[in-house]
Write a structure and sequence with these properties.
446 residues; alpha/beta; Peroxisomal Thiolase, Chain A, domain 1; two-stranded antiparallel sheet; 17% strand
């Protein structure tokens, strides 16, 4: 062999990937059970803004996480470094509160729930930590901390800037902190692709396992940007609902009277594993991640392409990689944000991709209840898809009092205002973001 030539590439590996753990900290609750029960019951997590004085804004509502304490003790200690090492008894200590941004607190709490839920902790002695990785994204990052530190700087100058400021705001610090907490020494990265962030994080994490780069990955996303600048900026774009007097009815995907999305905060995280490893250790498997599609509109920075052409390609790609056809899908967990344009474009794309399946397929939008989690939105949609498969229930799209006539004409079966009970073999979850970026995931029964 020529000493200057590269060795031949290894054969392509395609291993199966399953979901063994879930974590959630959302406007509907501080864990998976509370969040899922809220979705199925059609409860809204939207209310008046309390994180700052919004009285001067024309938008005074948001989806806030209430009652969250990042120092609250875990239900049971975790031993990611072994039983003979110091246990992990709470996500953070009181001293940590000045070190990190809120998105890191939310995301780490959800990640620890997903890890504990998976049961991996009891098997760490027989597993290689170098084969465990993290892909946790955030769409914007530490905006509350940036705003607060700017005020400190303006009032006190350079000497008053916190030495922890960069750690508070850097988008990859959530992934880094979770890696530290759980002793995951494999691939470690943070996706930032606007509202498709955690859809891409899940898809790329599953791909890493499928091709053999890791055996387990913590994946998902978080966001906490209920701040004056974020609310003000989205309001200036006329992207937000102004139903301040009825916050629980403000997020209304597909409704003829929808007037914009509701900004929210929260985190949703998955524990993904290579299927054979999960089976060997007797893990409870929620679902299998069968397909992933990513695409770009290359059309507009803040609007979907005409006929949501890019969205159609991400859905079709997810089906192809799953080895499924449109008639195999029973539920689409839609991105639908409650904006006048976006909902209709995505609905038309779904109707096109699933043209032969419209009477059998149900479509629903979790954002009607939780609002828009930005960097956590894709994982939120996938969360609904996974638990819909487990429980045989499609969460409702609430606040749907008058279906948009243009959407009605598409013939889609939208789960309006009440959950739909039905067996679900396979589901597809969409997430799309500014910049024309799209992600679609297909999950199936294990």
């Amino acid at each position: 062999m020529n000493p200057n030539s590269l060795p031949p590439l290894p054969p392509v590996v395609r291993r199966r990937v399953v979901v063994t753990g879930l974590g959630a900290v959302t406007p509907l609750g501080l864990n998976v059970v509370e969040t899922w029960n809220g979705l199925v019951s059609g409860r809204s997590g939207i209310g008046p803004i309390t994180r700052f004085d919004a009285s001067a804004s024309n938008v005074r509502i948001a989806g806030e996480v209430k009652g969250f304490d990042p120092t609250a003790p875990l239900g049971s200690p975790l031993y990611p470094r072994g039983k003979d090492k110091e246990p992990l008894t709470s996500p953070f200590t009181p001293k940590d509160l000045k070190k990190f941004g809120r998105f890191t607190f939310l995301g780490a709490a959800a990640a620890l729930e997903a890890y504990a839920d998976s049961g991996l902790d009891a098997h760490r002695a027989g597993l290689d930590s170098d084969r465990m990785g993290v892909n946790l994204g955030v769409g914007i990052g530490g905006l509350p901390e940036i705003e607060a530190m700017h005020d400190v700087f303006k009032a006190g100058g350079f000497r008053k800037i916190s030495p922890f400021f960069i750690i508070q705001i850097a988008p990859n610090l959530l992934a880094g902190q979770v890696s530290l907490m759980l002793n995951f020494r494999g691939p470690n990265m943070a996706v930032a692709s606007a509202c498709a962030t955690s859809g891409h994080a899940l898809g790329e994490a599953a791909a890493a396992i499928a091709r053999g780069d890791a055996d387990a990955m913590i994946a998902g996303g978080a966001e906490s940007t209920v701040t004056p600048l974020a609310i003000g900026a989205f309001a200036q774009m006329r992207a937000l609902s102004t139903r301040n007097d009825s916050p629980g009815e403000a997020s209304r995907p597909y409704d003829a009277g929808r007037d914009g999305f509701v900004l929210s905060e929260g985190a949703v995280v998955f524990m993904l594993e290579e299927r054979d490893q999960a089976l060997r250790r007797g893990a409870r498997i929620y679902a299998e991640v069968r397909g992933y599609g990513a695409s770009a509109d290359a059309y507009h920075l803040s609007s979907l392409a005409e006929a949501a052409e890019g969205s159609q390609r991400s859905m079709r790609r997810a089906l192809v990689t799953a080895g499924l056809v449109p008639t195999d899908i029973d539920f689409v967990s839609a991105h639908a944000t409650s904006t006048p344009g976006g909902d209709g474009e995505e609905a038309a794309a779904i109707a096109s991709v699933f043209a032969e399946n419209r009477q059998h397929l149900h479509v629903s939008a979790t954002k009607s209840m939780v609002g828009h989690l930005l960097g956590g939105a894709g994982a939120m949609g996938a969360f609904a898809a996974v638990l819909a498969i487990r429980d045989g229930v499609v969460p409702p799209t609430i606040n749907l009092s008058q279906l948009d006539p243009a959407i009605d004409a598409l013939g889609l079966q939208i789960a309006a205002n009440a959950a739909v009970r039905k067996p679900i073999r396979a589901a597809l979850a969409n997430s799309f973001g500014f910049g024309g970026t799209n992600a679609s995931l297909v999950v199936t029964a294990p």
